[in-house]
Specification:
The protein has five helices and nine strands, in the order ββααββαβαβαβββ. It has helices at residues 23-35, 54-71, 100-103, 121-136, 151-159; strands spanning 10-12, 16-19, 76-85, 88-98, 105-112, 141-147, 163-172, 175-185, 196-198. Helix 1 (23-35) packs across helix 2. InterPro entries: Acyl_CoA_acyltransferase, GNAT_dom, Ribosomal_N-acetyltransferase.
């Protein structure tokens, strides 16, 4: 697709491929969402989309992806990658930016199908988009956040070198819950071998990351 080259962008790691999903990939993501992506007793998301019924979670997954494609602009974008491990779609990794040309700041979010959790995939796919952000897009900062009882997400952030960046209080299922903000700077980022970016050049204007003249 010449006018939206993001569909040719890929990030590869020793085990994973991150790509904008095909329609078949979207079906696979919707199936995973319907199966569930976390313990129903917990809620790791600020928007509780996983509280919906399975069919609604599946449809919402499709609609969310379609919506980000339709609303993409260099001033505000959200790149939703399907994550494939050994050829099988296992989850979604998001990298987003707002006024990136000015702020040089990105944020991340993700989820994995429950049967693929506990295998180190979450760390590897977050590392992949950080590689894209810092080494591909020349970001200065990457921010993330997790509720204080989301130990798995916080552990990934700590492992990758994020530092505390404050606390926010959210209403979660009708009760107050603290979310810990986290920030990773370019100076604290270390590029790892085996992580590669493919097809980025034509995409740079869409990210607001055109090379300086």
């Amino acid at each position: 697709m010449r006018h939206f080259p993001i569909f040719r962008l890929r990030v590869t790691t020793p085990r994973l491929e991150l790509r904008l999903p095909s329609l078949d990939d979207l079906d696979a993501l919707a199936d995973l969402a319907a199966e569930g992506v976390h313990d129903p007793e917990l809620m790791p998301f600020t928007f509780p989309w996983t509280d919906a019924e399975p069919a609604a979670r599946a449809l919402g997954t499709l609609q969310y992806h379609f919506g980000t494609w339709a609303s993409w602009s260099p001033e505000r974008w959200s790149c939703l990658f399907a994550v494939a491990c050994e050829g099988r779609v296992v989850g979604m990794q998001e990298l987003s930016g707002s006024d990136f040309a000015v702020t040089r700041e990105v944020s991340t979010g993700s989820w994995l199908g429950r049967r693929f959790q506990g295998k180190g995939i979450g760390t590897e796919m977050r590392t992949a988009v950080l590689h894209l952000a810092f080494d591909g897009l020349d970001a200065r900062y990457a921010v993330s956040g997790a509720f204080t009882d989301d130990h798995a997400s916080l552990a990934v952030s700590r492992k990758l070198g994020y530092r505390d960046d404050g606390i926010e209080t959210h209403s979660r299922r009708g009760k107050a819950a603290d979310l810990r903000r986290l920030r990773l700077t370019r100076d604290d980022w270390t590029t790892l071998p085996g992580f590669e970016i493919h097809g980025l050049g034509p995409c740079l204007p869409l990210f607001g990351a055109e090379p300086a003249p």
